[in-house]
Every structure is written in structure tokens, then in C-alpha cells.
Amino acid sequence: MPYRDSGPRLIGPHLALPLRMRRDGARLVHGPANALPLLNTGLPGVVTIHDLAIYDHPEWFPAGQWFATRVVVPQSARRARMIICPSEATKRATVRLFDIEPDRCRVIPHGVETEFALPASPSVKDEVRARYALPDRYLLQLGTIQPRKNYVTSLRALARIPAPQRMPLIVAGAFGWKYDAVVDAVRELGLRDWVRFVGYAGMPDLPALYQMAQAVLFPSLDEGFGLPLLEAFAAGTPVVASNAGAIPEVAGDAALLSAPEDAQALADNLLRLLTDRPLRERQVAAGRARAALYTWSASAAAHREVYESVVSPSRASRTVTGV
């Protein structure tokens, strides 16, 4: 969850921002990260709720977020005139957890940057390969190393793949929280030579990282959307993923899905992609077609429609985005 409890984070978005909006004569406030200002601005509000997994599984998250989860997010959801969710899965969770009327929630999916679909040049690939010391063939998983991303199941699946077909797993993501089980699994499964943690990878490197990978793993225990799915699809890289949260909704038939903690099924799907060329080609084509459905221009247009439905269309609207 993007909101963290701290003094400066309270003063800026919850006190200073409302004062700024009053000064600037804003007509609408949009909280794009699960929260509206606590200080009542008197303005119609729109809030984007990305996911709510912390409510059903607090054990996956760091402690110390009680103020956000018990006060800020619920109050924002109830005060907002309209709630934007990136998926039907998040909409259902919002309605269930906060007793929100379904017609106050609008599903607006994210888009995917066009850079992922543009083939990286040989020189860029060489630079990225050298920067991360990449092998010729590798599997890729992206995301902060934390329980919800389910790296342990990825490692167990990797250990089940016979050595002739097995290839290194590159993990692109910072160590976040509660990652001891991941570190222990690498040791216990004898995968020290098969797993490389390369840390956070920035946007300039991501298209090449995806495009050079043989497959992307995305077995999350829950997702409010799942941008790595679209990024991999656009890059032309096949995906094995879990069937949890919004993943089936976003992936459609473009990824091979299995239960999130079924390591054998994940391994079987991965082996199919690596050994069945016609299947691989079908999945790559399906992924590219799926990614083409999700554009930021469509997302922006849908946001504008929400703003216009909240603010009287007969009056010029100004939007301040914050929090």
C-alpha cells in the first residue's frame, strides 16, 4: 500500500494540499493513491483505490500502517463521490470492505507504455546484459521481494525443472520486507547458482530485460491489477502466472495460469513454454494482442469522463491531483 504513516506525509497531503486547493480555486480533488485529504475541502472528490490486499492478509505487509488502513483509506472511500479501481477484482473488494454502492465505483484499467513493444536495439541489449551480468538465456520475475509476490513458489517451481531445461531466474526488484523465506528457500533448494537478485531495474532497462527473457513468472498471491503482465505481453515474452486477484481478468488467455501456491503446476506450465514452440508462439501473439487493449490514452479519457460526471459539465473544471 503506497500510504505510510508519518508526520510529513500527514501534513502535506492532508493539511497543506487542501489549503492550496482553496487558494487556487480548484473544483475537484483526485487522490490517485488510495487517499483523499483528511481536512474537508468542500470539493467533490475522486479517489483511486489500487488494491486492498492488506485488509484480508495483513501478514503480507509491514506493521505500522494502522492509521492508513483504519482511518485514511476507509474515510476516503466513503467520502469520495466516485471511486476509480483498476480492475473488477479491486472494485469487488472495495464494495465488500467499505459497504460502498457498486455504482460509485468505476473500473478504469491501467495502460502499458509503448516502449515495451518497441524492439530494443542490439547496443541497448548489450548494455543491459552487461549491467546486470545476464546469461544468454534466463527467466525473469519483477517486483519488490515481499510475501505477496510469492517468490518462494517461483523458487520451488524452478527446483522442479530438470537441469537440461532449467535456466537461471533473474529477480529484478529491491528487497522489501519479510523476505527471509525467500533467502532461506534459495539455500534449502540448492539454487544458489540458479537465482540472481539484481536489485531494482529502472524504466530505461525494462524493455530489454523483458525482451531478452525466455519467460516471465508472475505467481502473485494477489494483485489489484498486475502491470508486469502487460509489460511482458507487449515485449513479446510469454508469461506463467497465478490465477489470483485481478491476474485472470488482465491476462485473459494470454498467460498460462495456475493456483498461486501450486509449484508443480507452475513448473509444468513453464516447461510447456520452454519446450513447445507452437504453444510459445501462440502465447506471444495472444500477449501482444492483449497488451494492445490497454492504453494510457484510453485510461486518460476514462478519467476525464469521471471528472466531468463529478463536476458540473456546465462549469469549467480544474483538477488538482495529490496525496
What's a concise summary of this model?
This protein is an alpha/beta fold and 323 residues long. Helices cover 43% and strands 12% of the residues. It contains 13 helices and 11 strands.
Shape: globular
CATH topology of the largest domain: Rossmann fold
CATH class category name of the largest domain: Alpha Beta
- What count of helical segments does DSSP give? 13
Ends distance: 13 Å
The CATH superfamily of the largest domain is known as Glycogen Phosphorylase B
Low confidence ranges: 1-8
Give the neighbour order of strands across the main sheet.
Answer: 7-6-5-8-9-10
Helix content: 40-55%
CATH architecture of the largest domain: 3-Layer(aba) Sandwich
Q: What does this 3D model show about the protein?
A:
By secondary structure, the chain is an alpha/beta fold. It folds into 2 domains: 7-111 and 296-321, 3-Layer(aba) Sandwich (Rossmann fold), CATH 3.40.50; 114-291, Glycogen Phosphorylase B (Rossmann fold), CATH 3.40.50.2000. Helices cover 43% and strands 12% of the residues. The chain has helices at residues 7-24, 53-56, 66-79, 88-98, 122-131, 151-160, 180-188, 206-212, 227-235, 247-251, 263-275, 277-291, 296-310, and strands at residues 28-31, 45-48, 82-85, 105-107, 139-142, 169-172, 195-197, 215-218, 239-242, 256-258, 319-321. The strands form 2 sheets. Strands 7-6-5-8-9-10 form a 6-stranded parallel β-sheet, with helices on both faces. It has a 5-stranded parallel β-sheet with strand order 4-3-2-1-11, with helices on both faces. The longest helix is centred in the first third of the chain and has 18 residues, at 7-24. The chain is globular and about 65 Å long. Mean pLDDT is 91; it is low at 1-8.
